């Protein structure tokens, strides 16, 4: 789940043993997303995906992190096509051939949070949209590669943005990635666009960052629907979203939610 920037949140460094618990939390998230990838086919409602996600988390001794978070009604954020993030699961929303669907899931396990997302294709999708998914996923890994001791958060942001814009797509600016730990959203904010400032935080060993490019086929502009949650592109163009939780170690970035297919 992405963060709408408000007041600055504290940056809290994690010990190696805390990072190990967070790896387990994120592996439960990765397992959930892989399970959903198999089950998300045309004819299935987004409500059903939510039920399966919550069941999977609870079977693995974790609790769904998004359920009730600032009043979010589901366990899973399910965002179709022009929806960017924070789509609400619904019995009325049925997956159809040609859709793309962003599934964003978080859990709390032994007091620590995991958070990751992927955008899936439902059967055959438009070639242009398939390229959007490919470029968005690539941009996530470009950002992760910059999550190194001595760099600044802005190095992650500019790497994501440069890759996206090279391919003619737009990064969403209204929502950002975030630190994660004993809270779902900690500092620092991790934008997907460069600020041009040299004052973004230095990246330190022990930081755990949820890096999450949200990328639109059209313009960067988005709006929130009347339900108070669902973020959509203003021009109704398709949008993709990929997210990993990443620990910064002295030897480089460690993707805690790795293994997502
Ligand atoms: Mg997130």
Give a brief outline of the structure.
The chain has 261 residues and is an alpha+beta fold.
Walk me through the structure:
This protein is an alpha+beta fold. It has one domain: Alpha-Beta Complex (Creatine Amidinohydrolase). Helices cover 27% and strands 25% of the residues. Helix 1 packs antiparallel against helix 2. The mean pLDDT is 97. Bound molecules: magnesium ion. Magnesium ion binds next to loops.
Topology:
Layout: H1 16-39, H2 46-59, E1 63-64, E2 76-80, E3 83-85, E4 100-109, E5 112-121, H3 127-145, H4 153-166, E6 170-171, E7 177-179, E8 186-190, E9 208-211, E10 214-216, E11 222-224, E12 231-233, E13 239-241, E14 244-249, E15 252-255
Antiparallel strand pairs: 1-4, 2-4, 3-12, 4-5, 6-10, 7-8, 7-9, 9-14, 10-13, 11-12, 14-15
The structure holds magnesium ion.
Magnesium ion binds next to loops.
């Amino acid at each position: 789940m992405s963060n709408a920037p408000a007041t600055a949140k504290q940056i809290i460094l994690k010990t190696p043993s805390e990072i190990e618990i967070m790896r387990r939390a994120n592996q439960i998230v990765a397992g959930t997303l892989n399970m959903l990838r198999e089950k998300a086919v045309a004819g299935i409602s987004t409500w059903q995906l939510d039920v399966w996600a919550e069941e999977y988390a609870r079977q693995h001794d974790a609790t769904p992190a998004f359920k009730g978070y600032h009043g979010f009604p589901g366990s899973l954020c399910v965002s179709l096509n022009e929806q960017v993030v924070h789509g609400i699961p619904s019995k009325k929303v049925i997956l159809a051939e040609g859709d793309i669907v962003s599934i964003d899931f978080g859990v709390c396990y032994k007091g620590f949070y995991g958070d990751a997302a992927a955008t899936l294709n439902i059967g055959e999708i438009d070639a242009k949209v398939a390229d959007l998914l490919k470029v968005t996923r690539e941009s996530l890994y470009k950002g992760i590669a910059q999550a190194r001791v001595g760099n600044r958060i802005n190095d992650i942001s500019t790497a994501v943005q440069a890759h996206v814009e090279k391919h003619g797509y737009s990064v969403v600016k209204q929502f950002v990635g975030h630190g994660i730990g004993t809270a779902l959203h900690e500092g620092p904010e991790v934008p997907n666009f460069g600020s041009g400032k040299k004052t973004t935080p230095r990246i330190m060993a022990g930081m755990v960052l949820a890096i999450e490019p949200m990328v639109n086929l059209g313009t960067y502009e988005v709006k929130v629907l009347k339900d108070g949650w669902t973020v959509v592109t203003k021009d109704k163009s398709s949008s993709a979203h990929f997210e990993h939780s990443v620990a910064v170690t002295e030897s480089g970035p460690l993707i805690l939610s790795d293994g997502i297919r």
